[in-house]
């Protein structure tokens, strides 16, 4: 018989697991890893609001994507164009970024799998006599290691020609040059930290769902058990 067990700690772990998976996935797909040096607008390109020249803009560069602006001289405006600059894996600008993409993709796949499984932990608490929380926590720890490897290798690719075209000639491995870090990089770091927090917190979720109070509720014949 399936017992639906809901506790504050198990629900918090489930929500964090889902948030972490989505945060890492969004960061990986974003082009806002590097914010390039400012590029001035030409005098012919006018701001629709002020009627004057547009302010300089800063293009962004991701692991495999980029955002830039394309001029429409006949309309005196610019449109931001975002999309992948690499049509296939081999065209990613740096070998270090290729390794970053592999490690991040592996970590994200694990996190998405755990996030999917975590939804069913309310009804299934063990697999082959092993706590599903402990198994998921172990997988989250492994995913966190993959994410760390990817984030460590990513700055090593700042010396590639693609990064130099965005960040200037002074850009090199672990040196940003004229670029700055975008929100996607910080989101990936924050998600990595939360991944390890989830891995540790999974033990608390397991303790909460196997506590004496839960066992007493099961012995009383209750199928839906909600505990604070």
Summarize model confidence as the mean pLDDT: 83
The share of residues in helices is 40-55%
Largest sheet: 5 strands, antiparallel
Radius of gyration: 23 Å
Description:
This protein is α+β, with helices and mostly antiparallel strands and 228 residues long. Helices cover 48% and strands 15% of the residues. It has one domain: Up-down Bundle (Butyryl-CoA Dehydrogenase, subunit A, domain 3). The protein contains 6 helices and 9 strands. The strands form 3 sheets. The protein has a 5-stranded antiparallel β-sheet with strand order 5-4-3-2-8. A two-stranded parallel sheet has the order 1-9. The protein has a two-stranded antiparallel sheet with strand order 6-7. The protein is elongated. InterPro entries: LHFPL (IPR019372).
Which key terms come to mind for this protein?
five-stranded antiparallel beta sheet; two-stranded parallel ribbon; 48% helix; transmembrane
Brief rundown of the structure:
Belongs to the LHFP family. The chain is α+β, with helices and mostly antiparallel strands.
């Amino acid at each position: 018989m399936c017992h639906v067990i809901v506790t504050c700690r198990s629900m918090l772990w489930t929500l964090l697991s889902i948030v972490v998976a989505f945060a890492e996935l969004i960061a990986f797909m974003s082009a806002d890893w590097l914010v390039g040096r400012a590029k001035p607008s030409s005098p012919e390109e006018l701001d629709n609001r002020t009627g004057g020249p547009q302010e300089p803009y800063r293009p962004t560069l991701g692991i495999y994507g980029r955002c830039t602006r394309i001029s429409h001289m006949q309309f005196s405006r610019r449109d931001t164009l975002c999309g992948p600059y690499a049509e296939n894996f081999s065209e990613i600008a740096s070998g270090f970024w290729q390794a970053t993409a592999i490690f991040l993709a592996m970590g994200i796949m694990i996190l998405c799998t755990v996030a999917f499984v975590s939804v069913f932990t309310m009804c299934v608490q063990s697999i082959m006599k092993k706590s599903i929380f402990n198994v998921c926590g172990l997988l989250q720890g492994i995913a966190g290691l993959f994410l760390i490897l990817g984030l460590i290798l990513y700055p090593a690719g700042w010396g590639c020609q693609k990064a130099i075209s965005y960040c200037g000639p002074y850009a090199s491995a672990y040196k940003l040059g004229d670029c700055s870090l975008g929100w996607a990089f910080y989101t990936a770091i924050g998600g990595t930290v939360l991944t390890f927090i989830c891995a540790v917190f999974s033990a608390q979720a397991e303790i909460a769902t196997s506590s004496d109070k839960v066992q007493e509720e099961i012995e009383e014949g209750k199928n839906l058990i909600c505990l604070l």
